[in-house]
Amino acid sequence: MDIELKNILLFLNSYTDELIGDLKQELLRSRSRDYGSRTLNAPINASGEGSNSLEKVSDGNEINVKGNSYLEKVDEGTKSTSASLQDIMKWINVKPVLIKDRKGNLVEQTKARKEAFAKRVVARLKESGLRRTNFITDTVNNSDSRLNGIEDAAVDDVLANIDKILESHGISMKNGQYTIQK
């Protein structure tokens, strides 16, 4: 038996649109992250690719949020992760990352220095992974209250499909009255 979930799907479509908007805001918000030797207070979204990758994907009665796979790793953290030297070089140039010497002084941002720094980042990611940020987890948890009211949409869908539901259980409408089929 197929019942139409029109009202629930409308509700969840709206919820998903708002959730994606909230996730994009979280990516742009400055977040404090401790890296042992230093604390970074900056948005997670360096290049904009993460935010731009977020989209709603609907397939029948299923609605999902899809985005770059690394966003989940940034949210949950990893013990070890791999990144290409090319990706880290791109990140350094887009962010932009300012390279300092051992004394903490800014140094000239030459290609060779950027590449050496990128190699250290790749090695560190492989060795230590990513620290958990919880930006997805926190956003989803904070959006739970927006699901209040979904029960009204479910009731509307059940009422709109009550005859189909009862028929599937052997009860049919005849002359304005429900009868049990034998």
Q: What does it look like?
A:
The protein has a two-stranded antiparallel sheet. With 182 residues, it is an alpha+beta fold. The chain has helices at 6-28, 49-53, 69-76, 85-94, 111-128, 135-142, 150-160, 162-168; strands at residues 30-34, 39-43, 55-59, 62-66, 171-174, 177-180. It is rod-shaped, with a radius of gyration of 25 Å. The model has no long low-confidence stretch (mean pLDDT 89).
Structural class: alpha+beta
How much helix, percentage-wise, in residues?
Answer: 40-55%
Percentage of residues in DSSP E strands: 15-25%
Distance between the termini: 19 Å
Tell me the total number of β-strands. Answer: 6
Provide the fold topology:
Elements: H1 6-28, E1 30-34, E2 39-43, H2 49-53, E3 55-59, E4 62-66, H3 69-76, H4 85-94, H5 111-128, H6 135-142, H7 150-160, H8 162-168, E5 171-174, E6 177-180
Antiparallel strand pairs: 1-2, 3-4, 5-6
Helix pairs in contact: 1-6, 1-7, 4-5
What's the short story on this structure?
The protein has helices at residues 6-28, 49-53, 69-76, 85-94, 111-128, 135-142, 150-160, 162-168; strands at 30-34, 39-43, 55-59, 62-66, 171-174, 177-180. It has 182 residues and is an alpha+beta fold. The strands form three sheets. Strands 1-2 form a two-stranded antiparallel ribbon.
Please describe the structure with a list of short key phrases separated by commas or semicolons.
8 helices; 182 residues; two-stranded antiparallel sheet; two-stranded antiparallel ribbon; alpha+beta
